[in-house]
Amino acid sequence: MLIASQLPRAAAMTEVDAPSPAPCYRFDRFELRPAERTLRADGQPVKLGGRAFDMLVALVERRDRVVGKHELMDLAWPRLVVEENNLQAQVGALRKLLGPAAIATVPSRGYRFTLAAQTAGALPADLAPPGAAGTVRRTSARTGTQPAQPVARRGGASAADLDRLLAEGAALSEQEAHRLARP
Fold first, then answer.
1. What is the pTM of this model?
2. Which residues in 97-134 are b (16+ Cβ under 10 Å) and which e?
3. Is there a domain that residue 97 lies in?
4. Are strands 25-27 and 117-119 parallel, antiparallel or unpaired?
5. Which residues pair with 171 in a beta bridge?
6. Is the separation of the CB atoms in 69 and 84 below 8 Å?
7. In this structure, are residues 60 and 24 in contact, taking their beta carbons and an 8 Å threshold?
8. What CATH number is attached to the domain comprising 92?
9. How many domains does the chain have?
10. What are the tens digits of pLDDT across the range 97-128?
11. Residue 162: which of 105, 87, 98 has the closest Cα?
12. Domain containing 118: what range?
């Protein structure tokens, strides 16, 4: 007869102390698995460099806010001093792979991941496709849909205005973000 102390640790684990599955993110036609360090497009593995992969994970995990340039460099190049052009090169590589609207530049602040992403197994928060560049998406209480609303065409937007637009789901191109930030 075996007693619990004689069982291997894995066999004695309960549901409470079982490890939770690593997060997996789905966006557009991509699936990002940080624990496995893989990115898949339409189910097929995508070749992506280590720094670009680390930046993508950092941006997706912080998709609810703007990630500062220095924070992003610290996450992708820990304990190394790098120049900002390295960051720009990796962002360019990610935009080439994911599409130009996937990562918004917020001038003098940093970058923001703009594609609608879901954690694997989570219920879809929004089944509608993300807005096109230059639009803000809001949910209508009456219909539950998200009609596109044009972004205000004015210069001199404050940092708070840009954060609000991005928080509301605005998909801003780099040119649009620069134009809005001009006085």
1. 0.58
2. bbeebbbbbbeebbbbbbbbbeeeeeeeeeeeebbebb
3. yes
4. antiparallel
5. 135
6. yes
7. no
8. 1.10.10.10
9. 1
10. 999 999 999 999 999 999 999 997 543 434 33
11. 105
12. 23-122+129-181
